[in-house]
Design a protein that fits this description.
alpha/beta, Spore Coat Polysaccharide Biosynthesis Protein SpsA, Chain A, 2 domains, about 40% helix
């Protein structure tokens, strides 16, 4: 492992993804942009991840391999460990089970010199555990692709985009500022298991601007992961309630109309859950968190969608920023 003087630090946080590690690391090592170091982190995996990672210990791009003896309890603690170790000005959290087009870094790094940039991110396409692509419009750009890219002020992006949902589908889609990320070393996102990334991006955009690149260069693997487990257990929705309240506290001027639509858009997914015990628990938590009736809010959302053709009626897509 060598001493590095690089522009970008790539952090690969891994937990029990030995089966995907070689594919992931090859998608990094073969990027057309090469001014980077590679930091490999393992959070006490119980599979043969350590063995796979150690195959790369002499690779000239690998600056560090750290294998925890005890699991940290949160993927976001591993993020911050890697950020603290990084030597580059810019960071890429390359999740261990994902992949990327080989021009992902080159395309993102063309934008990092934009004024006061907090992060830049690309669109995402999804694949399953067999690396087969899954059809679907996961980015919901609705015609924005023709713009190529757009840069927005952080607060505008937070209140019009991130408030509705985490538009950064997963960390592997983004390159962000190390300096700004280090300001968040003691933030609440570190305590979360599922929605910590949503809160992380929210706190990041409050420090600077954001660039969206309308190309699907990130490849997210959707399978029996922490995220999917969080959906099934209900934890992801519990944390999403907390993140929503956090954002609303920062933007106290949000209308009740907008907040009710946002809350109901979360509950619309919750009400489809098959586990009735978890569904009831989340319904009660919804009432407690938002001081509102989730069923009435849901029908309010449906009514609003029927009237979406009216110019003044709010929807997520109408509120979401477009390039001027």
């Amino acid at each position: 492992m060598s001493n590095f003087n690089c522009t970008l630090s790539i952090i690969v946080p891994n937990y029990n993804y030995a089966h995907y590690l070689d594919e992931r690391l090859q998608s990094i090592i073969n990027q057309t942009f090469q001014d980077f170091e590679l930091i490999l982190l393992d959070d006490a995996s119980t599979d043969n991840s350590a063995e796979v990672l150690n195959k790369y210990k002499t690779h000239p791009k690998v600056s560090q391999i750290i294998i925890n003896e005890k699991n940290s309890g949160s993927p976001f603690k591993q993020w911050m460990k890697g950020i603290s170790l990084a030597k580059g000005k810019w960071i890429w959290i390359a999740e261990a089970d994902d992949s990327a087009e080989l021009n992902f870094l080159e395309t993102c790094m063309q934008h990092v010199n934009e004024e006061n940039l907090s992060f830049v991110y690309t669109g995402t396409k999804c694949m399953n555990d067999k690396s087969e692509y899954i059809e679907g419009d996961f980015n919901l750009w609705n015609g924005r692709e023709k713009d190529g890219y757009a840069t927005f002020s952080g607060e505008d992006f937070a209140s019009h985009n991130l408030y509705w949902r985490n538009t950064v589908i997963n960390a592997s889609a983004a390159i962000f500022s190390k300096e700004k990320a280090l300001h968040l070393q003691h933030e609440d996102f570190l305590k979360m298991k599922n929605c910590g990334d949503w809160l992380f991006w929210f706190r990041m955009v409050l420090q600077g601007n954001v660039t969206e690149i309308y190309q699907n260069l990130n490849i997210y693997r959707f399978h029996q992961s922490q995220t999917k487990k969080g959906m099934e257990s209900g934890l992801i929705w519990e944390e999403s309630f907390s993140v929503s309240l956090y954002m609303e506290a920062y933007f106290p001027n949000f209308s009740n109309y907008k907040k009710k639509l946002h809350h109901a858009s979360i509950y619309r997914i919750v009400r489809k859950m098959k586990n009735h015990t978890i569904k009831k628990k989340l319904k009660d938590l919804y009432k407690q968190s938002f001081n509102s009736n989730p069923t009435l809010d849901y029908y309010f959302l449906k009514f609003n969608l029927h009237l979406s053709f009216i110019p003044w009626v709010i929807t997520e897509d109408k509120d979401r920023l477009r390039k001027k």
